[in-house]
Amino acid sequence: MSSRRTGLLASVGATIPVVAAPMAGGPSRPELVVAAAAAGGVGFLAAGYKRPEDLAAQIQQVQQSTPRFGVNLFVPNPVPIGLEELDRHRAELQQWLGDHARAGAGWAAEVELPEISSLAGVTSAPGEVWEDFWEQKLEVLEANPVPLISLTFGLPSALDIARMRATGAKVLQTVTSVAEAVSATGAGVDGLIVQASSAGGHSGTWTPRDPPAEIDLLELLQAVSGRTELPLWAAGGIADAEGVSSVLHAGAEGAVLGTALLRCPESGTHPVHQQALAAPPGVSETIMTTAFSGRPARALRNSLTEALTASAPSGFPALHQLSAGLRRAAGAASDPHGLNLWAGTGFAAARSDPAGEVMRCFAGGHRI
Ligand SMILES: Cc1cc2nc3c(=O)[nH]c(=O)nc-3n(C[C@H](O)[C@H](O)[C@H](O)COP(=O)(O)O)c2cc1C
């Protein structure tokens, strides 16, 4: 371990070893990223689902306040799904909407699920291959260089990693297993984000048809440490200063906070989601589910996860697109039961304090 390279956080001028995770879908807005830097840590913009021009605008907005931040990208790794299987899932969603409307949720009766032939990533249908504007986002990063780029869902080609590094950025790859860590190390990235299955939101797994192995963060960190000398950032279920201390003692250079920041005023988390973290709508625990997006993700339990998790197939982004209108309508109606309430296992500790305060408090006495 003594030969492990550190210094990734120091190289960008961070003074505390705490990172604000990229969280797509709203939470990681520029305000959160700027607050993370002001606290001495590092924050990430989440490029996932965003249009390239909106990513460029957010990068420029953050750059007006700080040069110290990163951008996170979804690496194209779609999970195709057959028409019949998708149709079955659509019918289950329709059934849930009917049941939910009969239970008193008027909004659910108004939702019209899209026709499955219009969705991307459906086999034997004319859906386009979904790349989340990968090429265009690389061009945005070439035109607007940032010091850190993190990647999730898969490993890009060596050529694309080289393109990102040629912008001057250090590239970090999210890994969820020893095998992924070994491949990423061989691919020439600058650091690894070691993400355990306790993490909130989508798992970064490169093999999304298999639910990520339920392995404790410290165990995963130790297993990965033995196989790479890259700097490691640890993610998943970190809920207090002790959690940060333990990952640093286990050899991580940084601790990544996601769920712990979802209720902070700087984060753009949907208000219904924020409230659900404080007062969960169902059994007060999280569950790994493909019901909303077709990729394994950890969420608070609610009526939709209870009804659909057991039967939901894999299929990304088809399932994500299929449920988009439903989720939007649930949010507009302030109904947590139809929302993807992404949350890590440590959600109960999430507070509504300013992000900088949370990050400094979690850092405790640790400095870089
Ligand atoms: C709402 C939400 C959205 C997320 N979106 C992304 C994302 O866009 N890209 C990514 O690499 N990870 C994403 N993640 C995972 C986080 O980056 C991080 O690994 C995770 O939150 C750490 O676990 P914790 O939530 O238990 O702290 C998301 C997590 C949450 C809770």
TrEMBL record:
The keyword Transmembrane does not apply. InterPro entries: Aldolase_TIM (IPR013785), NMO (IPR004136). Its cofactor is FMN. Keywords: Detoxification, Dioxygenase, Flavoprotein, FMN, Monooxygenase, Oxidoreductase, Signal. The keyword Lipid biosynthesis does not apply. GO terms for biological process: response to toxic substance. Gene3D superfamilies: Aldolase class I. Residues 1-20 form the signal peptide. It catalyses: 3 propionate 3-nitronate + 3 O2 + H2O = 3 3-oxopropanoate + 2 nitrate + nitrite + H2O2 + 3 H(+). Pfam families: NMO. GO terms for molecular function: dioxygenase activity; nitronate monooxygenase activity. Belongs to the nitronate monooxygenase family. NMO class I subfamily. PANTHER family: NITRONATE MONOOXYGENASE-RELATED. This is Propionate 3-nitronate monooxygenase. It comes from Nesterenkonia aurantiaca.
